[in-house]
Amino acid sequence: MPEVRHALRAMLATWGAPGAGDVAELLTSELVTNALIHTDNGAVVTATVAPEQLRVEVRDFVSGLHRSRAPRAEEGTHGRGLVLVQALADSWGVENHGVGKVVWFELNGGAA
Q1: Strands 91-96, 101-107: parallel, antiparallel or unpaired by DSSP?
Q2: Cα gap 98→78, rounded to integer Å
Q3: In sequence order, what are the beta bridge partners of 105?
Q4: pLDDT tens-digit series, residues 49-61
Q5: To 5 degrees, how large is the angle CA 82–CA 89–CA 11?
Q6: Measured between alpha carbons, how far is 7 from 53 in angstroms, rounded to an integer?
Q7: Which helix or strand (DSSP H or E) is residue 84 part of?
Q8: Is residue 45 within 8 Å of 39, Cβ to Cβ?
Q9: Which residue in 12, 13, 57, 111 could disulfide with 21, CB within 3.0 to 4.6 Å?
Q10: Is the Cβ–Cβ distance between 106 and 91 less than 8 Å?
Q11: What domains are there in the chain, each with its CATH number?
Q12: At a CB cut-off of 8 Å and minimum separation 6, what does 45 contact?
């Protein structure tokens, strides 16, 4: 996971408003963590950068989406990945992709 964050940080060093790269790094980390926790087959991360938009896709190899629910207070910080994505991304979604799925988000370059 540190390699993914480092590569994304380097790629976004001059992209977007101040803080936009930090938001992208956080959301990517959350999606990759979800993929690794809820599957046994790893994940593939793809980031597409344009001057006005970033799209990050995290593909896993298990069909179906883990049921999203509001985390309880006693769970600490566990279970908040998709809540953060919903709150901070300009758009996001899930697409079936043959064997597995792709969870993606887009940012328009502004800071949160």
Answers
A1: antiparallel
A2: 29
A3: 56, 92
A4: 988 899 999 999 9
A5: 110
A6: 17
A7: helix 81-88
A8: no
A9: 12
A10: yes
A11: 2-107 (3.30.565.10)
A12: 4, 28, 32, 56, 57, 58, 59
Beta-carbon count within 10 A of 15 CB = 17
**Span 31-88, pLDDT tens digits:** 999 888 888 888 999 999 988 899 999 999 987 665 544 444 455 455 568 999 999 9
Tokens of 58: 């995290």
Long-range contacts of 50-54 (CB under 8 A, 24+ apart): 51/15, 51/109, 52/108, 52/109, 53/106, 53/107, 53/108, 53/109, 54/12, 54/15, 54/16, 54/20, 54/24, 54/106, 54/107, 54/109
Residue of 49, 54, 58, 44 whose CA lies nearest to 90: 54
